[in-house]
Amino acid sequence: MGIKVRLYSRLREIVGKDEIILDQVPRNVGELIETISKTLGENFKKAVYQEGRLRDNLVILVNGHSIKLLKGVETPLTENDNVSIDVIDLVEIIGGG
Questions:
Q1: Torsion angle defined by CA atoms of residues 12, 18, 24 and 27, in that order, rounded to the nearest 10 degrees
Q2: pTM, entire model
Q3: Helix (H, G, I), strand (E, B) or coil at 42
Q4: Alpha carbon of 76 to those of 50, 70, 86, 95: distances in Å?
Q5: 18, 32, 48, 70: which one has the fewest Cβ atoms less than 10 Å from its Cβ?
Q6: Interval 4-33: pLDDT, tens
Q7: Contacts of 80 (CB under 8 A, 6+ apart)
Q8: Residue 23: which of 9, 39, 42 has the closest Cα?
Q9: CATH superfamily of the domain spanning 3-87
Q10: Average pLDDT along the chain
Q11: Domain ranges of the chain
């Protein structure tokens, strides 16, 4: 059956759709991101990688749980998993008076 990946915010704009379905289920999240990057091209790759590693503001959820609380990019995947990927851009505002 494959695996469904939901994309949000800037990633959805880059790809032009909010969902990707891969025919083959990658072994883990790292392999999933590599596969999607190869398929979707350089703009997607720049949005998720910085200096050879995943960006700090990238949020990846597997079945509603952050991979940061699981096994990171080594989090295993099955065809029944729901994967969501988002980029969170925060601007820190400092004020004084």
A1: 60
A2: 0.86
A3: helix
A4: 23, 9, 19, 43
A5: 18
A6: 999 999 999 999 999 999 989 999 999 999
A7: none
A8: 39
A9: Beta-grasp domain (3.10.20.30)
A10: 91
A11: 3-87
